[in-house]
Every structure is written in C-alpha cells, then in structure tokens.
Amino acid sequence: MRHKHIFLLLMLPLLFSCKSRFMAIERNTFDNSDEAFICYLKSQDIAITDNNDVEILNGAHEKFERMLKDIDNAKHHIHLEYFNFRNDSINAVVIAALAKKVAEGVEVRAIFDAFGNISNNKPLKKKHLRKIEEQGIEIVKFDPIRFPWINHAYHRDHRKLVIIDGTIGYIGGINIADYYLEGLDGVGKWRDIHSRVEGEAVAKMQNVFLAMWNRETGQNVGGAAYYPTPPKSGKARVAVVDRWPTRNAEQMRRAYANAIYAAQDSVQIINPYFIPTYIVRRAIKNAIKDSVEVEIMISSKGDIPFTPDVAMYTAYKLMKKGAKVYLYDGGFNHAKVMSVDGKFCTVGSANLNSRSLCYDYECNIFVFNEDDTDSLVDCYKKDKEESFPMTREYWKSRPWINRFFGWLGYVLTPFM
C-alpha cells in the first residue's frame, strides 16, 4: 500500500503540469487561417521570421543524403541535438563525416538524451563515446540516468535538430538510427518526414540548441560567428516553437490547439502516438462542429506495446464526432506533421500526447507558405495510398482486450 501512495505522489506533478487555462482563437474572425494563427503567435511573443527556404524531406533517405552533403560543405560549426544516436551503421557514417570536418578545423558539438540512448537496443556506451571524443567531437549526454532514476523520468530531450554554420537547419522526427532507413522487425517500413531550412529561422533554431548546450556543459558558446546574416531571399515565413518545460511549458500544446482553431476548411494530421491532451482534443472537436474537414492518420501497428490501442480508441471517438481517420498499413508512420487549409503546416519532434506536450523538450517549425504546405500534403496523399479508413465495423472487429486497453489508456491520457 505504501508503494501505491508513493507512485501516486510521483505522478501528481505530471497530472497538474498538463492543466492550464487556455484562450483559443475564434474561428472566422480573420479572413484567412494563416493570418489568424500568425496573430496568435505574435501575441505569445513567438517570432515570425521572413526570407526562409524550406524543403520538406519525404523520408530518412532524403534527409540523410541532403544532410551529409551539407555537413561535407560546413566551414565553421555543426551542432546536433537528438533524442537517439543509435550505435549502428548510419550513426557510423554520420560520425565519420563529422570527424572529417573536425580534422578540417570545423567545430562539432552533439547532445543526445540519456533515456533515448538506453531505450534502444544498440545504445552508445562509454567506449563508443570515448572513441567519438578522441576524434575531436564534443558529445554530451543530456540528464544521465542516476539513482534515484525516477527523478529523471519527467522531462526528456526529444528534439531532433541540426544546425550547420548558422545558415542551415534540419528539424523533424528522424533520429540517427538504421531502422529509419531499413525498417524494424515486427513493424516493417519506418516512415517519417523531416525538413531543411535556410534563412532567418535558423538563428531561432540555433538559440534552442545553444541554450541546451550551454546549460548542460556550463560553457558560454555564442557570438556573431554562430549567427551569420541570412540572405534576404526565400518565400516562407517560419515560426520556431520550442518547448522548454520550466520556461514555456504550455507553448507547444497551445500552438497546436490554436493552429486547429484557426482552420476554416481542412486539417490533416499525421502523428504516431495520437493521444492528445484535452485542449487539443477540444480544438479538433470544435473544428468538426464548425464543418472543418479533419483527417487524422495513425498507424495500424506500433513500436510500443499498448500505445496503438490507445491511439485507435482516441481516433475512434473523434471519428464518431465526424473526423476521417486513416490507418497507415505500410509499416509504422512516425511522422509528426500537420497542415491547415493548405496555407500553413508544422513539422517537428512533438508527438500529440502528454509526454511531448506536457513533459519533454520539443521543437517544431510552423511554415507559412502554400508551396511548402502543398509538398507536405503530397506526402500525406502518398501515405493515404498505403492506408485504409477506420470504420465502426473495423473497430468492432478488433479483439475486446485491445479495445479495453485502448479505453484504459484513454482514461490515463495525462500520463501517456
């Protein structure tokens, strides 16, 4: 009984960390959804940067091919922040490319999450880290797991960021791991989306990385060399929305919810662990009520036991309200993206669950450009070809135990 009480006490901070008062955009108070959402972001002092070029990278092959070319062309510094550096072949390729740049005089800094590292089956061990450091790469483990381990369970660094020379940024859902390229036993193809950014938004991404790096290392890295003047070209406006649990804990979930509240015609969501918090669910229901076409894509299978059942239960409840739900059946779709009205979109690391929206360090970009949004919508359409619609008949055909676990997880949403 004592252990039960201790567990409840430990969980209370998590429950209340996800409770907040929330003011939403009123739909149709602006001519366009992008204008409405930009107004909201400005009201929260989130900068809207201009003159950006954004490239939607449809899968890990595109991401790594593009990123390795940019690494090879780096002149001053390369910064990497990942939840997971898996000790496998793509990691070896990336580390070799970074070591080559160090030999040429380029500064290389990398930070990875300690829990993300031990949660994979090929973690970076001390001997691997020593070898990396011997090649001149500064590499830091975020929040090492030490006794009592529960102290480290709340806030993990889930970002996936790369900044090269302060002029190029990468952000999305793809970690450094082979299964993004080769798939995973029991799951099949591992599907994901990333993005490449050039322009004024890269400085905001640099801010995110250096704040974490300087806090974890005690260093004071910064200055003009890390913030070169960007070119005055590029069609996209971009907002970098970052979640730092002790500074702007509500920023990510409020941004997602208000982006949905701003929608006037359509919302398309792909998210792997679709167990959204109350304010995001409320925004989706409100959009459906106001005749916005809401489409949600989740995977028919998952990499974590129990989670797919909860995602399906949550999506099924929204389907009954009027959302169109598609089950991706071509493997596991790990993308964390959303498009609104074909006018703006978001790509980043944030899952639509309490873990990402209430506890972890996360970073997304919101892109205001119809061409880039069209590129993301094209990815969605291709994934739809490998999906099937959820129906009441499909839901009722699922084993009762899976439906029960789905209901149970839904009840426990604040902890998922």
Summarize the structure.
The chain has helices at residues 2-17, 33-43, 60-72, 89-103, 114-118, 126-134, 179-182, 201-217, 251-262, 278-289, 307-321, 354-359, 370-384, 392-397, 400-411; strands at residues 49-57, 77-82, 107-113, 138-142, 160-164, 168-172, 190-191, 194-198, 236-243, 266-270, 293-299, 324-328, 332-333, 337-340, 344-348, 362-368, 387-389.
CATH T-level fold name: Endonuclease, Chain A
> What Rg, in angstroms, do the CA atoms define?
21 Å
Mean pLDDT: 91
Measured between the Cα atoms of the first and last residue, the distance is 23 Å
The poorly predicted ranges are: 1-17
Spatial strand arrangement across the major sheet: 4-3-2-5-6-8-1-9-16-15-14-10-11-12-17
Q: Beta-strand percentage?
A: 15-25%
Descriptive overview:
With 416 residues, the protein is α/β, with parallel strands linked by helices. It has a single domain, classed as Endonuclease, Chain A (2-Layer Sandwich), CATH 3.30.870. It is 40% helix and 22% strand. The protein is built from 15 helices and 17 strands. The strands form two sheets. The chain has a 15-stranded mixed sheet with strand order 4-3-2-5-6-8-1-9-16-15-14-10-11-12-17, with helices on both faces. Helix 10 links the parallel strand 10 and strand 11. It starts with a helix and ends in a 5-residue tail after the last helix. The N terminus is likely disordered.
